[in-house]
Amino acid sequence: MLGDVWNLFRTFVSMLSSIKLYCYVLLLFGFMPLHASPPGGLKFHGSEQPINQRTSYNVFGNNTAEFSGYFDIEFNLSLYPRTEFGYILRIKNKESNRIYNLFYDGQGGNLVFKFNEEGKSNLIVASMDREELLNMHWFKMKISFELKSDSIKLTIHNQTFGAENKNLPDTYHPIILFGKSDHIIDVPSFAIKDLSIGSQEKYMFALNESKGNIVYDIGGEAIGEVSNPEWLVNDAYHWRYKTSFKSKSVAGANYNSEKKEIYYFNRDSLYIYNVRSGNTNIKVFQEKCPVKPILGTNFIDEQHNKLYSYEAYYAPPQDDYDGPTVASLDLDTYQWTPESSEQLTSPLHHHGSYFNPSTQDYTIFGGFGKMHYSKDFISYDLNKKDWSTVEGFTGDFLSPRYFSSVGYYKNTNSIYIFGGMGNESGEQTVGRKYYYDLYKIDLNTRHISKLWEIPWERDNVVPVRGMVILDDSCFYTLCYPEHFTESLLKLYRFSLKDGSYQILGDSIPIFSDKITTNANLYYDSMLNNMYAVVQEFDDDISSDLKVYSLSFPPLTAEELANYSREKNPYRWAVIILSCLLATGISYVVYKRVRPKKQSNVEEDIQSESIPATKTETTTLSNAIYLFGEFTVRDRNNRDITYLFSAQLKQIFCLILEYSTTEGGIASQRLSNILWPDKPADKVKNSRGVTINHLRKVLSELDGIELIYDKGYFKIEQTAEFYCDYSRCMEIISTSEIETYRDELIEIVSRGKFLQLSDHPLYDSFKEEMEKKLEPVLLLEMEKSFEAELYQATIALADALTNIDPLNDAALTFQIKAMQRLKMNDEARLRYQTFIVEYKKVMGTDYPHPYKSIN
User: Fold this and answer.
1) InterPro entries, from UniProt (predicted)?
2) Residue 689 CB coordination number (10 Å)
3) For 418, how many CA atoms within 13 A lie in the half-sphere containing its CB?
4) How far is CA 753 from the centre of its chain?
5) Burial 41-53 (b: 16+ CB within 10 A, else e)
6) Which fold has domain 40-230?
7) What pTM, to 2 d.p., does this model score?
């Protein structure tokens, strides 16, 4: 069977030698659905920043490109409003002094692009509709040099402009510079992605790096250089804080995707935040909102450009209120109109809702009030201006609940209801249950179908009111454990088919003490962004509103880590090879196994020929792991990592580090590290709040305690608790490391120490750990090889590579161990990966050929 697979491999290599690698990449991306296009892009800091902090990108760096006949420079462009004036790119020619540039001026009514021969004349002027381009977020930009016909064309979105008779050379050696270059320092705020340059053969750059100043082409080869970059792929994982507002009276919030505006309003005024421009306007109403706000509930009719404020019910001491309960705000004139004075029978806290623009109905579902959970659908008719309970549903039983997430899917005229809390009777006194189920309600037939219910092993969470459904495969919503005062919102993507889910992006803090506190999720298809709006109440009256954005499609932590890894020019070949090998192996196994069963002897031979190279790791309850991804498991083995905010994780690691090495950290030293610029009184308060929060989170585990003794904070552990860092320190401090070698291998096989923790605060911790660990790994790697424990040698070499990617000894012992195990293909691939990394870092070829390692 291995011979057949090897033949498949040789055929594949032959293919690669005759077909450009990027064709395979394009083929792979061609199968991706439109809304799943890879995130990324390079954002340029413009004249809003000091000159030395503006972005400059040399596409070819020290490399030389040559084109004959014609060549195109094509990319997607996004414009930002902070600086709307300056040069986007310059095009030089190594063989002449002629320079062309593209100048942008967005200060007037239209967006104007000028293509110039620098220092001589303007060649092309393109005036574009401002709203059309800005609302697209990304639009196509293409500059074509027709060398044979001496013409230049500029294409912006769907319009093409040209210049003839420009006396162009037959062959061009372009130097292409985006942003700041030479004496050109006027740079607008913009971003580019999906850059391609060439004719029949193209240089292609996805611009999806997550860090660093080296730019790689889609094959993984280092080509260009950039200074002061902002890599936009990070915005698909890290929620970006945008703005915040305060109101001393009850307020509501919503998003208008037509106008790209977030509204935050109370009875007197309206804050308007434009997510595209970042500008905020305040409108003071000539007449107050007719509805007396209690919860601030509202919805938007984008079709008629109106915002509706409503209150379902006025409970004591407001029960004598008889004024309007629904009013509409004209978002052109900012005039309020009373619509209805009808009240429902309950306040229905945390109900779900959806608006159907085609029928002009706004419907709420569920909610809590008067000691009851609701299961009713109650609809407000914008034309009739009245509420009515929707009857006549058939199908599965949908239990009473609140805190549910509701979404409307226009393509099937259906709504989906996910999760929440409640019980089958609706009586609060019975007790509440957390639901992790999904229902589909066909609005044409009013039939309810329960699609799934999934087991939940994490801490209980509730979703926010809003749900984003883009197609019939999945939905997105934010979830958080509302039973904690200081909680965290996380973005979940659930399959509509079976409930399988992924957690995407990092977390958003939310202070959830008050029942009126709420959050919502919105998606803008034009801007390709998600927006989270978090409204926190202090006393059920005054509130703060915070706005966050996340690029779409969002990434998991693992996906972001993949973007962060150094590019390997062979990585696409490896990916495609893996796919083909998997297919080939499956086919061969099927053909061989179908006629007859393999004997035990054959199975034994195969298991020796292709041994697994990955060390199995176990995850214990009551444990904290610092190797690989930071992970915390409580006493019931539930993952509670999400409870550790960035600051909690920092303070925990600091105290743990000093507890191990110095018996604890002084209170003053801790404050100086974490809050260096705060006044003493505020530091004391911040430290107290953070320490109390950490103690509360650690109370979810047994055998670990944060104590304060004689001015020092320290972590104390007992045998009930497990920490891989503490255990690793114990092992490498003994004189009998060989006895615990397998346990040490399992610890380090989880990954690099504090793998995804890049904050400078961790640097000394990581450096000290690696300084102690590296000599131990080297020694044990040699001993394991001498003892013919080759799997252990490979695992230890992997761990050494995490510390020092260019460690010669790790490469040598790993390849030798693989050769002893007949893993020759893996050995060659490991060597190839190493020499690519070596040349990238050292600038020269690795001096030892593969044959010398035996």
Assistant:
1) AfsR-DnrI-RedD_regulator, Kelch-typ_b-propeller
2) 11
3) 30
4) 22
5) bbbbbbbebeeee
6) Jelly Rolls (2.60.120)
7) 0.64
